[in-house]
User: What shape does this take?
Amino acid sequence: MIDTERLLSYAPYELAHEQKHAFLTQELTELSRHHGESCPEYAKMLLATGTDLDQVQSFETLPFLPVRLFKEYALKSVPEESLHKTMTSSGTTGQQVSRIYLDRETSTLQSKVLSKIVGEFLGKQRLPMIILDTSAIVKNRAMFSARGAGILGFSIFGRDKMYALDENMQLDAEGLKAFLQKHEGEKIFLFGFTFMIWQHFCAQLRKLDWKPDLSRGVLVHGGGWKKLIDQNISTERFKQELHDTCGLEHVHDYYGMVEQTGTIYMECEHGHLHTPVWSDVTIRRGKDFSVADIGETGLIQVSSLLPRSYPGHMLLTEDEGRILGEDDCPCGRKGKYFEILGRIKRAEIRGCSDTYEQKPSA
Assistant: This one.
């Protein structure tokens, strides 16, 4: 079904508004048709909204699903025997989690798109990699949590990987020293979740009064801002802390979710989150879900060409944000660029590291 070669022929940020809008409208309409034919629950939704897929002029008029539905329904667009893996969202004890069902075709497409996006920031070659987490989180390969899936997904960009934290979430200082000595003078890729980095990496470096030289490193991090915001820790302070404790200068946040794995929005050098050609962000007004203007705050809706085995291509999130501009970011990347302003009130906390529960201190 997927013309993967054509989808992957684009560079992540090469299409300006008019061309990208036409591309997404055509592809997302056909994807809606596929899910309508293959997923009974989605077919009912199309019927209930009175959507005529033959009359769609803009992908922004296609119906979207609240992301919370994946906590309540097993939504699939492929037969059971075609399933390759099941991914689950993060959730604190007692919370329902989303379950996302992937076939091999969808999983492969997700990996290839992720590779193209991240390659824009890391380069084409695999780099020595430091994972700012514990290996314990990826032990269960049959059912991936969002945190484990994130680590495994980004690990494809690394080689000679090491986990900086042990199973008790303590910094492996000796292991890190040996790793840095081995790769002295090389560019290094670091990956982790925002709050885990703050709570366990930065804090323990300060406690040890040790400043490893990671000035040649590139850090990609995501999730977990809720706890930092509660502590009045801004993006600027987070980056300054990393610079002060280990010399990191190249730090890129990203926005993404397990319901649209592979579709991520990377932060550029100017602090803007960018939409690649395979996905888009629409801001919706809370009162009537109409499309908001550039600069206007509203609910974030995400659209993606990647979800093929489940109807997750048009999703309304529980996050607030605003579009900052389109096709004119100083970094030169085409497409919309935006910022996240936080979770809507009464929404569950579910960031990958927000849901991490600390063990009681001994």
Summary: Residues 348-362 have pLDDT under 50 and may be disordered. Residues 110-255 form a domain with the Rossmann fold fold (CATH 3.40.50). Residues 20 and 344 are 29 Å apart (CA to CA).
